[in-house]
Amino acid sequence: MILKDRVAIVTGAGSGIGQAGAAIMAREGAYVVVIDRSRDAGEATVETIVTKGGRAEALAIDVMDDDALSDGIADVLHRHGGIDILHNHAGAQVAGTLEDVDVAGFDRSWGLNVRAHFMAARLVMPSMKAAGRGVIVNTSSSSGVLYDREMIAYTTTKHAVIAMTRQMAGDYAKYGVRVNALCPGWVDTPFNEPFIKQMGGRGAIEAYIREKVPLGRWASVDEIAESILFLVSDRSSYMTGQILVVDGGETVV
């Protein structure tokens, strides 16, 4: 078990990639704190982990609530003595062009996709510095490295995550803390519903993926989870400030 007895926090872990990432960390020996705004979803993730012999707990927190996030992380630190891994995954996809996007939606996208990552990292960093080690993974997207049609809020925030990741990595490497970004491509989860609707339905998005993605298919959440495991474990021990794109080759064409 390559994460034996490490304490990990995963935000947005009630479904999709976040859930799969939490599960693979638990499988490899980590104690996983599952954060999701839905208590039921978080507890369902924990139940799945525990059923398979892992260890986890659920915290129902809206990561855009600074006080709730601060209290939750402080409680984890008090009970466990430290946090070894933070995977900032909670996010939202808001569609629209410059003229069409709802301004409130743009603000929400920034708050969830960027600011909440910033706050969670800020809250765990003192304990990681004190320990002389720690790993933070911020979820960006393939949309953080390329153009994404009529998705100005999403692409802006996901590009910002990459810049923030590199800045964190440069500032905190001297303390033994590594910070990297994960950029998934097309993963078949409900998260993509806004883009699927914008594209004209399931058939249209399937055709788009067959044409634009060299591997010609969606990724599974389990494939993305393997990449998460690499980033949070010692398998990537000499890697910081980097962007891991897992997109079936879309960004190379």
UniProtKB/TrEMBL annotation:
Superkingdom, natural source: Bacteria
Alphabetized UniProt keyword annotations: Oxidoreductase
Record-linked Pfam families: adh_short_C2 (PF13561)
GO molecular function: glucose 1-dehydrogenase [NAD(P)+] activity
CDD domains membership: SDR_c
Entry's EC annotation: 1.1.1.47
Record bears the keyword RNA-binding: no
Matching NCBIfam families: PRK07231.1
Family to which the UniProt record says this protein belongs: Belongs to the short-chain dehydrogenases/reductases (SDR) family.
Protein name (record): Glucose 1-dehydrogenase
